[in-house]
Amino acid sequence: xxxxxxxxxxxxxxxxxxxxxxxxxxHYLDKGKVNISLGESQTFLSVMGWLLHSFSIVAVNxxxxxxxxxxxxxxxxxxKLVELVLQVLFYSILVPIxxxxxxxxxxxxxxxxxIFLYVFPIHTEHYWFATSYIIMYAFSPLLAAGIKxxxxxxxxxxxxxxxxxxxxxxxxxxxxxxxxxxxxxAIWFIILxxxxxxxxxxxxxxxxxxxxxxxxxxxxxxxxxxxxxxVRAISLFTGKMGYFVTRTFDYNxxxxxxxxxGLFLCFLYWNAPENGFTKLAVKIAPYTFGVYLLHEQWEMxxxxxxxxxxxxxxxxxxxxxxxxxxxxxxxxxxxGVDFLRSKLFGLIKNKTSKESDK
Length: 358
Known about the structure:
By secondary structure, this protein is mainly α. It has one domain (about 5-355). Helix content is about 70%, strand content about 0%. It contains 15 helices and no strands. Helix 1 packs antiparallel against helix 10 (about 255-270) and helix 1 runs parallel beside helix 12. The chain is globular, with a radius of gyration of 21 Å. The two termini are about 35 Å apart.
């Protein structure tokens, strides 16, 4: 999920880390049982939790937009695809082994089904994001070639049709559609890739500055929050439409998409200063994907919120200070672990290359 060092743009690497912190935030609120279901009575703190969720929901789209923006002009590397798969396998298999060795994961909880999850994480969608991303990456040379060979108008129309089918209709109509996967699929990632490719080649007329991008992101996030609570009010009053309350937070919701594009362009156009902060962002950028793979591993995803005691602080004055500390702990532990993983992979790679040279 990262580009070569020579192509790293400090502002984008800051966004990459910010997006991962947003991902951890959503998991903290959800798996940490901090957010109260929108179908239940809300408190002030739970409403603020949903507002935080509304500002974080753009994270996944931003990650894919970053990749699409650079991949459309990059040469496809099959070795990178292999490395991605091996990185996913490293976490899906090794994490439960370590947890079992430490006594955190009882042998009684390891089933044949779980073993398949560990060994075949791509096919079983152990990590839905990784599965969708790897499929998108495999198609990236075809997508890049198609994007660059289409005329600007043709590309715009193609993207428009796809957005109509997979985003606009589901956003407007209160109808449950079998085609709708809520943005948790490779098709949505491919559409995001095409949008990013269009931005790389032609830009967007309506967002030409970092400040405007930030404004679009803020307004879109607030709108996401407001729509969710309006639909919630309608659902509670009528006893219907309960299904659509959380559909506002889908990645392929049109409002979420626009907010994501706004935040992406905000950082793309930001002339980030060269200082310790941005240099650090560039250094840790290659390890941010590992943060996701570690804390979202099947056995780990519900353990770390318990270890950090998220439920104890939910609904108290310490809820938000605890959130900040918790996501920073998860982030930096993940960065550290993936740094060690990369060194291990590097050693194995060097050793195998030396053996092959003999």
